[in-house]
């Protein structure tokens, strides 16, 4: 009897994960596994889109100010230096808290780029989404706004595009006139957007004596909101030590009332009397920074009073992101 011939299957070419294209969720995965894309390599892609990056601005110069401009400051701009310098035909790249019509970015008529920071993002990594928008703006035609999109999961982040040695120096504005070089010739849509934005802007001033501290004025009272880089648990312990000792205020009539949690950093907040301006808290803030440094250097267990103070601060903590 003749022997049966053994049938051999041709081997499929092996593709790396980076070489596997994106297809419809219900289509067969291009890797050849026989499974649908959503149950195979699409699962990792979906996870990369939804996974939240706890500190998206970590590693950038001025991380605390990035957080403040994203969450707290109405109108501000920062010149952004790019790794390797600016491309030909791009005289400047400027980060702005908000752009007209809520555009993610704008390539101006002169070729300069404005990148909006306070926009909704399509994934859990704000840095990657902003980097993708910035790349689109650099390639856009002058005079063109850039629309948002879902950034590629393997695309660069801001940390890859910006000069790591560059300065990050926010300029806080009283309004949004920086949107248009010539406000008189703005389109009706932009002019209306500018008017609405100016009406909603809360007066804000950046302190000069300490990093990432912003005074703001509201109808009932003023506030100081100070983004700090220290690990959250260590910072809360230090604030509790000062609060329990009656040394957490910024002068008469001021009070540490709690904190925000934003993009992996903690933002202590003080209530200030309505007559206390930004210049009035410059010296008290610098003195508080010295007290805080000493408290941060202490590793002794919290006393009962300090634990109660810490509980009060934690109960009044609000998460912004």
Beta-strand percentage range: 15-25%
The main sheet orders its strands as 5-3-4-2-1-6
Q: How much helicity do the residues have?
A: 25-40%
Extended strand count? 12
How much is the average pLDDT? 89
Question: Gap between N and C termini, in Å?
Answer: 75 Å
Largest sheet composition: 6 strands, mixed
What form results from the Cα inertia axes?
A: globular
Description:
With about 325 residues, this protein is of the alpha+beta class. The protein is about 30% helix and about 15% strand. The chain has 8 helices and 12 strands. It has helices at about 40-50, 65-70, 125-140, 160, 190-200, 230-245, 280-295, 305-315, and strands at about 75-80, 95, 105, 115, 145, 170, 205, 215, 220-225, 255-260, 265-270, 315-320. The strands form 2 sheets. The protein has a 6-stranded mixed β-sheet, covered by helices on one side. A 6-stranded mixed β-sheet has the order 7-8-9-11-10-12. Helix 6 (about 230-245) packs across helix 8 (about 305-315). It is globular. Residues about 1-10 have low confidence and may be disordered.
């Amino acid at each position: 009897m003749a022997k049966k011939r053994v049938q051999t299957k041709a081997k499929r070419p092996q593709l790396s994960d980076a070489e596997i294209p994106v297809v419809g969720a219900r289509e067969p995965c291009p890797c050849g596994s026989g499974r649908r894309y959503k149950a195979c390599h699409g699962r990792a892609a979906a996870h990369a889109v939804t996974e939240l990056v706890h500190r998206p601005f970590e590693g950038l110069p001025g991380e605390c100010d990035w957080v403040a401009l994203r969450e707290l400051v109405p109108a501000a701009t920062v010149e952004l230096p790019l790794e390797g310098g600016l491309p030909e035909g791009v005289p400047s790249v400027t980060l702005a808290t908000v752009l007209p019509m809520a555009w993610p970015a704008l390539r101006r008529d002169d070729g300069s780029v404005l990148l909006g920071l306070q926009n909704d993002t399509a994934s859990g990594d704000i840095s990657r989404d902003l980097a993708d928008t910035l790349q689109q703006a650099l390639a856009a035609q002058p005079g063109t706004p850039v629309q948002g999109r879902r950034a590629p999961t393997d695309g660069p982040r801001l940390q890859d595009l910006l000069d790591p040695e560059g300065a990050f120096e926010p300029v806080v504005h009283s309004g949004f006139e920086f949107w248009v070089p010539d406000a008189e010739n703005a389109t009706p849509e932009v002019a209306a957007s500018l008017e609405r934005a100016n009406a909603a802007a809360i007066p804000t001033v950046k302190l000069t004596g300490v990093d990432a501290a912003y005074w703001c004025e509201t109808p009932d009272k003023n506030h100081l909101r100070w983004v700090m880089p220290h690990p959250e648990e260590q910072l809360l312990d230090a604030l509790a030590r000062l609060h329990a000792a009656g040394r957490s205020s910024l002068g008469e009539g001021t009070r540490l009332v709690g904190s925000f949690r934003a993009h992996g950093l903690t933002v202590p907040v003080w209530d200030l009397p309505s007559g206390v301006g930004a210049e009035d808290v410059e010296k008290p803030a610098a003195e508080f920074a010295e007290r805080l440094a000493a408290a941060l250097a202490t590793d002794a267990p919290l006393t009962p009073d300090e634990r109660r103070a810490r509980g009060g601060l934690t109960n009044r903590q609000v998460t912004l992101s």
